[in-house]
Structure formats: C-alpha cells, structure tokens
Amino acid sequence: MLYSPGGAARQFCYSNAAGVGESVDLEFLRVAASYVSSPRQVTSGYYDFFAKHNATLWTVDRATRLATPMRLDVVYTFVNPRSPSFRRHLEARRVPFEHQRFRDWEELRYSLRSLREFVLASGALAQYHHHHAADVRRLGELGYQVDMRDADAVDGVVPLVRRVYLVLSDEDQVPEWLDAEKFPELRVVTHADMFSAEEAAQVLPTLNSNVIESSLHRIPGISRFFLYFNNDMLVGRQLSLFDLLCPLSPLFYERAVGWFQSSSERSPDA
C-alpha cells in the first residue's frame, strides 16, 4: 500500500496483481503493504493478499521526488494537576480546583507501558523490507530517490512507529515518575512549540483541549500520519496496521467523517 500525497491526487491504492505498472500512478495500484505476522487468530483476505506479495510501505512526495519508508508517530496529551503551572492557569481564569475532577490516577504510566509492550516492542507494527532492493530499483525507474536517513532500519526491519510525543502546557508538567532517559523514543513538546509567538500571545495558556487537539499536526517534526492517544487510553493487545486503516480506503477516521457527511446530505426518506 502506498500513500500518494499532494492535492486532489492523494490516495491510498492497492494491487490487483496485474503486473508492474508503466507509470507511477499504475505502480501505486500495484504495490501493497504487508507484515510478516498478524496478531489476529484468523487473518483477513486483505492480510493474506498483502503477505503473499511481501510488499513494503512507502510515502512518496511528487514535488521533491523523494520516497521514504512510511513511519508513524504517537502523540499523547497530558495535564499534570500536581504541577504549579496548572494551578496558576486555573487561578488566572478563576476556575476552582476540584480534586474529584483533576485527580491523577497515573493512567499515563500504564498507557505508556502498554504502548511499549504491544506497539513499540511488537513485530506486528514493523515493516519488513523483503523486496527493499527491488523497490529501490523500481522507484528509481519511476524517477524517485529513496531516502532512508530516518528509517532506523535494523537487519532490514523498519519500525513503523518512530517517535512518541508527550504534549504538555509547561515543562514542569512532566510526571515525576517518568524517566525520559530510559525512553529514547519519547519527545516532550509544550504548547508553545506548536504556535508562533504572535499566536501564543493570543491563545496561550489555554485550558481548552480543542485548541490543542486541533493543532497537534503543528508539532515540529511530526510524521505525516500519527496516532493520537489520551493519557487514559490503554493498548490491550498487539496492534496491526489493519486496526488503524482499511487496505482499500483511507484512514478509518476519514472514512467515518465522509460517512457522516454523506449521511447528513441524505433526504429524510432515504
């Protein structure tokens, strides 16, 4: 599976096993993404098809003519009610501190543990370049240069998850139990990192989660695709790519938005 970014031309495509494409667009239709193992007891027809073709997952940029192995980032938003900055923000807006509402049960600690166990340390979200050399050759024939600088490949294996971002309003909100040195994938981001100085002067500090969630794509260096977790979300088993998107269409979220939009446009009698 490849993602072709840029304007109206962006799309997810899959292979119909019709052979090598004669153009980059036909090549998008040929190539499929596959993973060596699936956490599911019974594999789907999609998975079996992709596994049979041993394909790899690439992100291509038509403007720069660069092709890179697709990587995902994970983003957490978190508020530490024990931090001095949080109390200051509440007092500045005359919002009372309610212990029942802002109590921290340290869900983030266990969420990060589940992420480590079932995502970062799981082979189900690693992409195996069985056909890497062939992909590089074919992409070169199509006019693309392969960039592996950010691939972190080990023995031909490219982890699909690249970094984990923890988004906080202020640096003093990093939980005291979190040892960032033992979590090399972790990056701490403050709200100010996501806004220009002029914007920050107008909107920060904020207690409105919608302001922050709608700006996560502005995290410096964030991947084109990322998974957004609240601090109380836990991963209970190995994830595969097919838990996140459907092989024959865009991301599940985009499909849901499209469905709601089309539903709202239907007549009451439809």
From TrEMBL:
InterPro entries: Stealth, Stealth_CR2. Keywords: Transferase. Belongs to the stealth family. It holds the Pfam family Stealth_CR2. GO terms for molecular function: transferase activity, transferring phosphorus-containing groups. This is Stealth protein CR2 conserved region 2 domain-containing protein. It comes from Leishmania martiniquensis. Residues 154-240 form the Stealth protein CR2 conserved region domain. One of its GO terms (cellular component) is Golgi apparatus.
